[in-house]
Amino acid sequence: ATYKYSFDVQREVLPNTSITIGAAATRGVHLIRVLSMNARLAQEREAGLFVPTTAPFRSPEFGRLRPRYSDATSNYYAFRMSVSRRYSNSLQFQGSYTYSKATDDGSNWTGSSDWANSPGQARYLNSKEKSLAAFDVRNVLSVNFTYDLPGQHLTGPVGKVIGGWQLSGILSTQDGVPFTLTTGVRPAFIQNGF
Questions:
Q1: How confident is the model over 108-126, as pLDDT tens digits?
Q2: Radius of gyration, CA atoms only, the chain
Q3: What's the mean pLDDT in 186-194?
């Protein structure tokens, strides 16, 4: 189930130009998450669970066991602001900015491995890891405009060549999603047989 809430206030600040400010929230419950039930045996460490890649599986007679549970939750909170100018005096523009935060305990991009220390992988046994969602994008900015270049009202052959041109543009930028850095080299503690 998904619950959505939003609140917006809009005001015209100049002729043909308005500003909208608002907030939004979404709460998801009973979402699907993937578990790794036949994971390698973990070791307790001060920082939490440590799972060596060479450790034996909990049940070596079985292969991958990755059931899907519908007990995950998610939260999304956003502040939104936009400026919009309707077409007037040869110019139209619109810009919007969103500052948000998404957290959950089971987001999954591909679920392509049994267990890993990165977002989107199957979780170790039944442990929940509430943190930033794999799709958390904190800042989003989008701007577009259209401007009629001079010469719109020219007639004759000159008007056919010079008249009717517009200049327009779109800018869209956003933060990236959370990720885990890896080197592709096995860490020393694995190479030493731990």
A1: 554 444 444 343 444 555 5
A2: 26
A3: 45
Q: How far is residue 26's CA from residue 127's CA, in Å, rounded to a whole number?
A: 23
pLDDT > 80? residue 43: no
Q: Yes or no: say if 133 and 119 are a contact pair by the CB < 8 Å rule.
A: yes
Percent residues over pLDDT 90 in the chain: 36
Asked if 85 and 16 touch (Cβ cutoff 8 Å), the reply is: yes
**Predicted pLDDT of residue 35:** 74
Q: Exposure pattern of 57-89 as b/e (b: 16+ CB <10 Å)?
A: eeeeeeeeebeeeeebbbebebebebbbbeeee
